[in-house]
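Hi C.,

You asked whether I'd gotten around to modeling the 317-residue construct. I have! Everything is below, sequence then structure, no commentary in between.
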Amino acid sequence: MFTIIEMEKKCYSIFSVAVWLLTAGFFGCTNTGSSQQSTDEAPYRKEEFKNYWYSGTAEINSYQLQQSRYGETREGKAVLIFVTEDFSLKKQVKLDDPEKSSNDKVSVLKLNFTKNFVTGIYPYSMMLSVFTPVERNPFPNTLKTTMTGQEWCGHIFTQLNLVNKKYRIQSNSYFEKEGDQQSQLSLALLEDELWNLIRLDPDNLPMGEVKIIPGLFFTRLLHKELATLQATTSKKQGGDETIYEISIPASKRILSIRYANKFPHQILGWEENFEERGKAVVTKAILDKTLRTDYWTKNKNQSVGLRDSLGLSHNNY
């Protein structure tokens, strides 16, 4: 039998728990400095998302590319490949045996982005890889980005790794002023991760004024120093698609990415407006064909015909 004082203490305890629960319900999932949804609402928890991105296949998209280079427009091909894989948080590489690395494993959406075009007599072959965690609340930043470029004069390589809330940068080039450099930048939005963020959840794309690290294709082709710049982002929705626009005044550049509103939010094309050699130029791409397949198993000669379904040459790109 409780005394009045004991009953008052018990009621106060129950009241405190109730207040705590209400507070947790309203504020416990708030992610400061981010527009990400709560974990319970996250798209990656939905069956539609799981069935698409964890089906054991990759999504391969080919694009008709018009690439500005040396002040002229070059016809070429671009390919965007999206696939999920198990990634090591410590080593920042794909895990060979994910089952033995549960404490070091994070699921990422990987983008492999290639561009192939010809300038006069010689070709360019470029590739960008971006590794963005699927679960954005615990892992709000892309872990790693790499870019390579090859042409007949030589080749270049850049890698960004997320280390201690900074991006550690390794840069190698056949150009004297760019060769064999190491530096770091404070944490900021990567232009190169925007493609993955669209695919993961376009409703939570960064909006308004943001600090951004420009894309590696652009900075290396135009020999720009990699730096954090101020940018403005916005959306223009029309019909079944949306255009996400990033304006970077310091670079005199605007990137517009067009994507489907309906899941899985396919990238329909993009356009870059910038200055090259003091001249206003445009690079743009339009979606041509799409194929979903486990391409890593399609490495026999009998699979060469699959390139036709992507509108790709058997010998190039």
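If it helps when you're writing up: The CA atoms of residues 89 and 104 lie 5 Å apart.

Thanks,
B.
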